[in-house]
Amino acid sequence: MAGMDHRGHHSVTRWLAGAACLALLVGFGRLALFAAIERDAFVPKPAGVFTPESFGTPSRQIVFASSQRQLHASYVQAADPAAPALMICHGDEENLSDWAIVQALLYHEGISSFVFDYSGYGASDGRPSVSNLRQDGLEAYRRFVADTPLAVRRYVLGYSLGSGVLLDIVGSLSPAPSGVVIGAGFATARSAAVATGIVPSWLAPLLPEPWDNEAQVRKLALPLLLAHSRSDELIPFANAERLAAAAAGPHRLVAYNGLVHNAAIEGDELVRFWAPITAYLHSGQLDPARAGPAGTTDVDSMEPGARR
User: Fold this and answer.
1) Residue 209 has pLDDT above 60, yes or no
2) Torsion-angle region of residue 209: left (phi > 0), alpha (psi -120 to 50) or beta?
């Protein structure tokens, strides 16, 4: 009987060792698969020709360090140095040039703005990766705070890809911003990868989850404004509904009809997209009284005077 126990003990030990090796192989396999997909997931856009000056707005073009990389940013200060200020984490296949027209709009709305290009985007050094973008966001916020010493309130906005970058770091931002804005954001990076065709739906569960925005908003105590089009052709509106349902702190979902995914930077749609956001930045109030029973405000049903 003792011999059987001894043999049984060795059998269990071998089984545990084999299971551990299999788990390691699976883990390494997932990481290797993720690394391969990560290389193709980002689509950096080379530097463009537009600056806020192209739209009659003065700006300061900045270079700052993120680890060993040099990142480029554009800062536009409102006429009043004490005006609300907004840092923007932009989307994929975008750069400072794409957001120059937005900075001009915000300037005329009396809001200071800071936009930066991630590693590998625009004229910024390095290559994009989840870890690099996290560090880029943290360093960008430090620079944003340093450039806005008199701002009455500071806000942060993540758009599309930038929603993952921002929500990944928001808990580490110091001093904490006055509020968070998520435009055309996704619930999880895996769901976004499926929606955009980067990976097939059957493969997504096998990948690590680098940006779980749904989990992040559950922990977020800061005021959260979600802005998403019901007609978004890239990131379905259901993502915004998931984020709104998960949000634990004060929040409001602004819904648009008929706007495309890139409405924030599209010349013929950006004024309509930004109207409720600039109103929030100026007031500092989410104004849930305007929201419907599900906490959603339909922009098209708002009174014209309430859009500013």
Assistant:
1) yes
2) beta
